[in-house]
């Protein structure tokens, strides 16, 4: 009997994280978060390129959490990565975002590259200590990729390129213009020192200041065959990357809410006396303030429960590899959209209403409580949450799944 050839797995992640793994990476993340928290406000106000922060992520080992152990990586799972993102967000939303984007940019190796080519990419990212930025903003489609011999030439401008200002490499998505492959979308990786690649450093926003998310200009940048990860297709397992990014957002918003709650608790417990109309011995013993903070804590706990469930499920869906169906992928994307809705609204509400229990003195610039609100308010505008509500409603009412995009 002749053995039938087996299809190579698209992705290298085949199992679930155990408690020991999650505990290991959570401990590291907590240590990094404590370091970041020590001067988060000062660094945010300085608004400098986060090179020291990037080195902290690198030296901690967090950059290679998802890289298979056989290639020198941490051998971790996505559930551990989502935990890490959330923990960092309690201290520094910017660096949490930087790491979250890095994880899915780097994971493009497993989602886009042919299985036979992945080993080389995994080794290169570990040996180079790469932090991966991106240049894929789908609402800014100004890149032109044209054939040039065996490779291509890239021209155009991409805004909101997170991590580009500090990463060793940038993953780029661009449509081929002309030639036999006209219309195909390629994912490829460029080192930030490539000739013709210009980092504009123009990121200067209300929040998320240290994400190195400036624009990148490309002028006749050479894209060699060895730079190409693969074609961006609608294959369910390859397109699962996008819901994964949205799940990262949900964990990030949750972490910001938890950080704001922790800071608010600290400030509330430190408040002396009580409101003059109250019979309580302190603000922290006043039922008015207990009710408010209890409401915010309960809502945050509910978001956490949903996030925990979906974080673990991501590894289950990834493990299906090429057997993942479009229906399975679509239904999971809807579940993640549900998290996106409640995480967005809870993150903003907590970061805003925490002032109700911390009082007027907490608005002092030296306190820095505004950092949580500015960060979550800025990033939750990434894509309109109302469209996520529509996705959830359309599926609940009619069983509709959304067409594939870099937002769904």
Report what the structure shows.
50% of the residues lie in helices and 11% in strands. With 408 residues, it is an alpha+beta fold. The protein folds into three domains: 19-131, Acyl-CoA dehydrogenase/oxidase, N-terminal domain (Butyryl-Coa Dehydrogenase, subunit A, domain 1), CATH 1.10.540.10; 133-231, Butyryl-CoA Dehydrogenase, subunit A, domain 2 (Beta Barrel), CATH 2.40.110.10; 236-398, Up-down Bundle (Butyryl-CoA Dehydrogenase, subunit A, domain 3). Helix 5 runs antiparallel to helix 9. It starts with 18 loop residues before the first helix and ends in a 10-residue tail after the last helix. Belongs to the DszC flavin monooxygenase family. It is an enzyme of class 1 (oxidoreductase). Pfam families: Acyl-CoA_dh_2, Acyl-CoA_dh_M, Acyl-CoA_dh_N. Pathway: Sulfur metabolism; dibenzothiophene degradation.
Helix-strand layout with pairing:
Layout: H1 19-37, H2 40-46, H3 51-60, H4 78-89, H5 93-106, H6 108-112, H7 115-128, E1 132-135, E2 144-148, E3 151-158, E4 169-175, E5 185-191, E6 197-199, E7 216-223, E8 228-231, H8 236-239, H9 241-270, H10 287-319, H11 326-353, H12 355-358, H13 370-379, H14 385-398
Parallel strand pairs: 1-4
Antiparallel strand pairs: 2-3, 3-7, 4-5, 5-8, 6-7
Helix pairs in contact: 1-3, 1-4, 4-5, 4-9, 4-10, 5-9, 9-10, 9-11, 9-13, 10-11, 11-13, 11-14
Family: Belongs to the DszC flavin monooxygenase family.
Subcellular location: Cytoplasm
Main location: cytoplasm
């Amino acid at each position: 009997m002749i053995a039938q050839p087996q299809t190579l797995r698209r992705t290298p992640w085949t199992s679930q994280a155990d408690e020991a793994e999650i505990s290991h990476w959570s401990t590291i993340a907590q240590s990094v978060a404590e370091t970041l928290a020590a001067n988060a406000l000062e660094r945010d106000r300085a608004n400098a390129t986060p090179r020291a922060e990037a080195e902290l992520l690198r030296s901690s080992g967090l950059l290679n959490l998802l890289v298979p152990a056989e290639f020198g990586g941490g051998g971790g799972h996505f559930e551990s990565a989502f935990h890490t993102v959330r923990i960092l967000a309690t201290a520094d939303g910017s660096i949490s975002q930087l790491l979250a984007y890095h994880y899915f940019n780097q994971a493009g190796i497993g989602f886009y590259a042919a299985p036979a080519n992945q080993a080389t990419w995994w080794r290169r990212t570990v040996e180079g200590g790469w932090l991966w930025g991106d240049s894929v903003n789908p609402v800014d489609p100004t890149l032109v990729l044209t054939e040039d011999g065996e490779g291509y030439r890239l021209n155009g401008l991409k805004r909101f390129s997170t991590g580009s200002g500090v990463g060793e490499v940038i993953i780029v998505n661009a449509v081929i213009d002309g030639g036999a492959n006209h219309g195909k979308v390629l994912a490829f990786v460029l080192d930030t020192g490539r000739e013709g690649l210009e980092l504009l450093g123009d990121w200067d926003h209300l929040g998320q200041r240290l994400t190195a998310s400036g624009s990148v200009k490309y002028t006749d940048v050479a894209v060699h065959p060895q730079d190409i990860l693969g074609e961006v297709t609608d294959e369910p397992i390859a397109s699962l990357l996008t819901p994964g990014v949205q799940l990262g957002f949900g964990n990030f918003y949750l972490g910001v809410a938890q950080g704001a709650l922790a800071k608010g608790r600290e400030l509330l417990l430190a408040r002396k006396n009580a409101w003059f109309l109250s019979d309580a011995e302190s603000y922290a013993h006043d039922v008015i303030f207990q009710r408010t903070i209890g409401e915010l804590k309960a809502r945050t706990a509910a978001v956490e429960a949903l996030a925990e469930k979906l974080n673990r499920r991501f590894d289950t869906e990834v493990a299906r590899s090429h057997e993942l169906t479009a229906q399975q992928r679509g239904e999971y994307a809807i579940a993640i959209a549900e998290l996106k809705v409640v995480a967005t609204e809870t993150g903003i509400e907590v970061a805003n209403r925490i002032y109700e229990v911390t009082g007027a003195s907490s608005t002092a610039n030296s306190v820095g409580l505004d950092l949580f609100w500015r960060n979550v308010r800025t990033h939750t505008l990434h894509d309109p949450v109302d469209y996520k509500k529509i996705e959830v409603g359309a599926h609940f009412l009619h069983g509709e799944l959304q067409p594939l995009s870099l937002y769904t």
